[in-house]
Design goal:
- The complex is a heterodimer of chains A (about 300) and B (about 90).
- In chain A, the strands form four sheets. Chain A has a four-stranded mixed beta sheet with strand order 6-7-11-10. A three-stranded mixed beta sheet of chain A has the order 1-5-4.
- Chain A is an alpha+beta fold and about 300 residues long.
- Helices cover about 30% and strands about 25% of the residues of chain A.
- The longest helix of chain B has 23 residues.
- The radius of gyration of chain B is 15 Å and the shape is globular.
- Chain B starts with a helix and ends with a helix.
- In chain B, about 25% of the residues are buried.
- Classes of the chains: A alpha+beta (about 300), B mainly alpha (about 90).
- Chains A and B meet through helix 7 of A and helix 4 and helix 5 of B.
């Protein structure tokens, strides 16, 4: 049973709300939080709260009782004076074993929200026997590139109708943005004994300072000095799978993409993606005298033109 | 429930109605309204993919949650599917 929420608060209305404003408030909230419209796992309990609140407040009889007795209203027999009720409650406990309680109407503490909710989902206009599967829910799971590359356990929690729910999710290695992780039976509750829906976690990879993803391929920038690019070298680079070495052939220009086969995101279905080291030739902001002299010498000696023949 | 269904590739009208906890007449009505899309063999016998059980559940939830008629539920389902598709496209950009 959900925590006792004030029904007027749940619907965001004043206590003296007119029936038509009450309905308008309920309809707006229902459109926003219906489990088929709002797939957020936290929308389910909100929808139940507003449905329960509206169910009580839309009926003048139950609304009067609720106004008089508050959260206790379901345990109050007909025709009891609010004052008497409050006094008798102050004087005695309401332990479940209290014999007096059992003389109250059966709709009292045994009230099960499923009954009400089952009514919401098909009870009134039921065309069959009443079991309705719960809706699927979706939530985003944000992972770093490294977490996605290696996979492993990740803990997540959502507030649900029965309090917060925590999941220890097994993230498969190599998931990329848009991939769904299915948690069977963890979606919205069914009605009338129907099975719950599934919870889908939709992966989103957080932007990374160095790695850029394109499908299963990863691009990483490889800054080089002009002489490294001109003469060739071997450079160590970090990849999500650990450090590796990349060989730069002599005469490599800026923008060249050096492919490291199979060093991208792992994938069981298509095989691992590739890692591309994208060459960027870097220069010091200012040259010292020696550097300037050598570059000037190079400029005078070389016949190379970067923009073809003029 | 999902696992049992997953083993069987297609369901007959009666099996499908049982899985949905509805009368088969009701299923035929949903088909006639274009809310369900069963396969039809040469003799006109219907067969249903197990995933259509989820479609029926959504139709029921939307109908009772918003007091909609079945024609309106069809429209809402189509719009929700379109939003899903758009959100999916956005996610990959």
């Amino acid at each position: 049973m959900a925590s006792p929420v004030d029904f007027y608060q749940a619907l965001g209305v004043a206590r003296n709300v007119t029936p038509s404003d009450l309905q308008a408030a309920y309809r707006k909230l229902a459109r926003a939080y219906h489990p088929d419209v709002n797939k957020d796992p936290e929308a389910e309990s909100r929808f139940k709260d507003i449905s329960e609140a509206y169910d009580v407040l839309s009926n003048p009889e139950t609304r009067r009782k609720y106004d008089a007795f508050g959260a206790d209203f379901r345990r109050v027999p007909d025709g009891v004076d609010p004052e008497t009720w409050a006094r008798s409650n102050r004087g005695e406990s309401n332990r479940p074993g209290d014999p007096r309680r059992s003389t109250h109407q059966s709709a009292s503490q045994d009230f099960d929200f499923e009954d009400l909710f089952g009514g919401m989902f098909g009870g009134r206009q039921r065309s069959g026997r009443g079991q309705v599967l719960g809706a699927n829910q979706e939530a985003e799971i944000v992972l770093t590139v490294e977490e996605a590359y290696h996979g492993g356990r990740k803990s997540l929690s959502f507030s649900g109708p029965g309090g917060p729910r925590t999941f220890d999710v097994n993230v498969p290695a190599g998931v990329t943005t848009g991939k769904k992780i299915r948690l069977a039976g963890q979606g919205a509750q069914g009605a009338g004994g129907g099975a719950p829906g599934d919870l889908f976690l939709i992966v989103r990879l957080a932007p990374h300072s160095r790695y850029r993803l394109d499908g299963n391929d990863i691009t990483v920038q490889l800054p080089l000095t002009p002489w490294e690019a001109a003469l060739g070298t071997t450079v160590a680079i970090d990849t999500p799978g650990g450090e590796t070495k990349v060989r730069v052939k002599e005469g490599t220009s800026s923008g060249t993409r050096l492919r490291l086969k199979g060093r991208g995101m792992p994938s069981k279905r298509t095989g691992p993606g590739d890692l591309y080291a994208e060459v960027r030739i870097m220069l010091p902001k200012s040259l010292n005298d020696d550097e300037r002299r050598l570059f000037e010498e190079l400029a005078a000696t070389s016949s190379f033109t970067a923009r073809g023949t003029p | 429930m999902t696992t049992t269904l997953a083993i069987r590739p297609v369901l007959t009208l009666e099996q499908f109605a049982r899985a949905c906890d509805l009368h088969s007449e009701m299923i035929l009505r949903l088909v006639a309204l274009g809310l369900l899309d069963p396969a039809r063999d040469v003799n006109g016998v219907l067969s249903f993919a197990p995933s259509q059980v989820l479609v029926v559940a959504r139709v029921q939830r939307l109908r009772s949650g918003f007091a909609l008629n079945y024609a309106a539920v069809g429209l809402v389902c189509d719009l929700l599917d379109r939003i899903d598709e758009l959100e999916r496209t956005l996610r990959y950009r």
